[in-house]
Amino acid sequence: MEQISEGVREAFRLVITADPLVTSAAVRTVWISLLAVLSATMIGLPLGTLIARKPFPGRRLVVVLFRTGMAVPTVFIGILCYALFSRRGPLGPLELLYSPWAIVSGEFLLALPIVLSISHGAVKSLDPRVAETAFTLGAGPLRRWITDLSEARVGVTLAVLTAFARCVTELGIAMMVGGNIKDRTRTLATATALETGKGEFGRGLAMGLILLAIALAVTGFMGALSREERD
Amino acid sequence: MPTLAIQDLSVTKNNAVICAANELSVEPGERVGILGANGSGKTTLLRVLAGLERDYAGRCNVNVTGRERVYVHQTPFLFQSSVLANVTYGLRARGVGRIARLTKATEWLERFGIAHLKHARARQLSGGERKRVALARALAVEPELVLLDEPFAELDEAGADTLVAILAELRETTLLIAAPVELPQGVVGREYRLSG
Q: Residues B20-78: pLDDT tens digits?
C-alpha cells in the first residue's frame, strides 16, 4: 500500500515538473495515434457509409469481417506488421521497422475496423427517411453522404474517439514494431511497461496516470455526446 | 405531353399486391387527389412517382427530372439542424447562393406563419409545426411536380387554411395529394380513387 501511495506521489511530481521522458512519450503517443486515426477515418468513414448505403453481394460477410477486426488482439496486429516490415518481409526495403511510422501503420490497422464498423452501424441505423428526404429534395450523392454523416454525427464521432482511445492505450503494436526505443518509438504504454519492469514504479505509474487521464477525457467527451443525443 | 402517366401499375411485397393503379394521366398544372382507404396503396403510388420505389410492374412515366419533383412524407423527417437550415436544404442542393436561399426560405416560412421559429431546433417542434416546415422546405425549391402524402394530417384548422391558400396560389405546379378522406374544397381539380 505504501508503495502505491509513494508511486502516486512520484507520478504527480513527474507530471507537474513535466519530466522530459514522460512528456516526450506522451507527445509521441498522441501524434502517432492521431495520425493513425486520421488515416483510418479518411478511409473507414467513406467505406463504412458506402457499405451501409449500397447493397452488394457479400456485404454481410464484409461487415462481419470488419466487426471481427475490432476484437483482434494488438499483439496479433503487431506480429502481422512485424512480418510485413521485417528485412525479409514484403515491405522490408522501406526500412520502417522500429520507427514511429511502423507504429502508425499498425495502429491504422487497429483503428480502421473500429471506425468502419461503428460508422457503418451509425449510418445503417438512421431513419430511412433521411436518405429519402435528401433524395427527394434534389441532393446529389456527395450532399446525401454529407447529410448521412451529419445525421449520424454522434455515432461517427464515437467511432473516431473509440479508435483514438484504443490506439493511445495499445501496447502490442508499439512493442512489436516500435521496439520501445528511447526518444524514437517509446510510447506511454511501452514506457509504463518498461519503467514498471525496471522497478521504477513511480515513473511507470505516472505514465499510466497520463494514459488514464487521456482515456478519461475521451470517455467524458463520449458521455457528453451521448447526453446530447438523448436531449 | 402529360407530366405523368401510369398504366397498369402494381407493386407487390411478400407476394401481396400493395398498390394497383390501372390508368392515370396528369397534365402540367393539374391537381389530383389520390383518395383511398388505409392500406389502399396511396403512399406507395406517391413513392413510385417520387422515384423512391423502383420495384414495380406496369408503366410509369414521369416527365420531370428528379430535381423538379418533391415528395413530402406523411410524417415528415426534419434534419438535426435549425428550421432555417432545413428549409434552405433543397435550395442549397440546387446551388442557390446564400443570400438568395436565406431570403427565399424566410419568405416561405412567413407564408406558413412560422418565421418566428426559423432559428429553433427543428426536432423540438410540435407535429403541426414540423409539417409546416417540411411543406415550406419542399415548396421553396419551386418544383414542377409536388407529391404530398396526407398533408392536412396533424395540421390545426389555421394551418390547414394556410396550406389551402398556398396551394391555390401555385397555379403552374402539378399537384398530387394522397388522402384517406375528401380534401378541402378547391384544393384539387379531380380525384383518383384507389380501391386497394
A: 888 999 999 999 999 998 889 999 999 999 999 999 999 999 988 878 999 999 999 99
Overall domain count for chain A: 1
3-state secondary structure at position B178? strand
Instruction: Report chain B residues whose CB lies below 8 A from the CB of A129.
Output: 73, 76-77
Buried/exposed code over B69-87 (b: 16+ C-beta within 10 A; e: otherwise): bbbbbbebbbbbebbbbbb
Q: What is the pLDDT of residues B121-144, one digit of tens each?
A: 998 999 999 999 999 999 999 999
The ipTM, to two decimals, is 0.93
- A40: closest CA of chain B, how far (Å): 26
pTM (2 decimals)? 0.86
CB contact under 8 A, B77 and A150: no
Give the structural domain span for A77: 2-230
CATH number at residue A99: 1.10.3720.10
Least CA distance to B135: which residue of chain A?
A137
The length of chain B is 196
Q: Do B52 and A132 touch (CB under 8 A)?
A: yes
Q: How far is A132 from chain B (nearest CA, A)?
A: 7
